[in-house]
Amino acid sequence: MHNSDVSDYLTTHHLDLIMAKLNDITTSQLSLSGDIISLRDAHSKLLIDLDVKFKKLKSNLSNCIEAVDLQQKVIEEHSQTIKTMESKISQISDQSQNFGSNLENCKTTVENPSTKINNINSGNEGIASGPRPVLDLAELKDRVARMNNLIVYGIHESDDVSDECLCTKIFDATTSIVAGCRSYHVVHTQRISSKTLNKPQLL
């Protein structure tokens, strides 16, 4: 084999090696390009997923803010309701005190029935003037019962009746009872001997 032939052989061999290496590099580049494309697609998909999750999170956060604002409004309304209730309770307390004061004034104003009855024979005119009708004991008891119901109603239903009106009704009822006691006392006193009657009696 001549030197030229040897040289050609080596050159061809080297060229084959170089071509093989180039083919390997090309294959690696293609594989790497495929990996890069896959990574890019995965990255794009990840960005899309993150964007969807971020929008959902943002929506949930907005709903939470609205819920908190609504809850705050409810708390403020409850606070205002409590203040209104406290004001009404204070008004009821004041009305109760006024009712108690007016009732005491009414008790002071209305003369004691027993005093009226005991003063009949001493010349006092009493509450009722003119002829005195005979009052049955059952009617007298009924008047007392109505008086009691009126007071109980006034205490428990004071919001429906003014204190002045209630005191007037109590005064009128008391006057009726006193008049009835007077009539009953006078009629039955006449039937009892003055010798056995030490003092006026209310049966």
UniProtKB/TrEMBL annotation:
This is Uncharacterized protein. It comes from Zophobas morio.
